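Re: that chain you flagged

S.,

Sorry for the slow reply, it's been a week of failed gels. I finally had a moment to sit down with the sequence you sent. For the record, here it is as I used it:
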Amino acid sequence: MVIGSITETQKLIDDSLKLEQEGVELNMCKILEELEERGREKGRIEGRVEGAIKIYKKMEASREDTIKNIMENFSLDKEVADKYVEEYY
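Prediction finished late last night. Pasting the structure tokens below so you have them in one place:
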């Protein structure tokens, strides 16, 4: 829970509280490693989405079609897909 407070990350705080309630011993190094891995995975996903958007643009797909395609291919909701297309199209 301390690392969540330091980083002001509500999800870490919530996860820590849940694990403590379940009686799981928390290891700060393990928590930091998990946080780092989450960041890497998010970066990998964003990279794949960015690449897909650039390909759709190169193929002259409309923004609307690009949004539909990345929503479908990456299981994103419209709001998230819109943000990606706004940034990378």
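What I noticed first: The first helix runs from residue 2 to 7.

Talk soon,
D.
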